[in-house]
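User: For my dataset I need records formatted as: sequence, then structure tokens, nothing else. Please produce one.
Assistant:
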Amino acid sequence: MDYSSFGLKEKVAIVTGASQGIGRAIALGLAQAGADLVLAKHPVGSMDAIEHVRAEIESLGRSALIVPTDVSQVSQLHVLMETTKTKFGKINILVNNAGWTGTTPALDVTEEEYDKTMAASLKSVFFACQAAAKIMIPQGGGRIINIGSNFGVVGFKQRSVYAAAKAGVHHLSRALSLEWAHDGVVVNVVAPCITETESRKNILERPGYKQWATETMIPRGRWNQPEDLVGAVLFLASDLADMVVGHVLMVDGGWTIH
């Protein structure tokens, strides 16, 4: 798809959790729209997938830098931002995509699982936004797009902590825009329903689950694909969305209109 009309040429974008699924699709979409990319991936595990994403971006004629980052560690988020500034001289776009969730019933959630979910899915977003804004504000502005969830709007079984974290991301983004929009840093949210990625495969393959969701919960009649998020992110990252401030853009096939 041709995304060049979004006008992101010579922009520098950071995407966390960029090695697969939604993060990969967004990174490639930003590159197709003209941006250079900084790709953040958790330092544990194989780097093969993120290296492949980098190669795909470079094949499009854009630059791509990999920065191993555990987003739950504030010091590593600062390294991510400073490395980007050193390499490219600026940060125009930050997409906070990385996160984590368990699927434990609320009565059985441990303190460890609670802390892990909140650290990866909410704490990381705040401190990444903060670190990026400290660079964006002096340079005259920037765009931050946080990936939320329809579970931050509607309830869902066995997602109590994750739902609370994503609701926090939604409201955090509004509050940060209130503080920073005057300085040119605009924060918005793209909120999908469960998206058909490798990490969600075990959920989607449960007997009857996919049929139940697509026939009962999603008026559009199909699951999100990672590419379904790209247009929303590019819009919010572009000058076309200059007056879209602190908004939660649902990309959920209509799940939340019930």
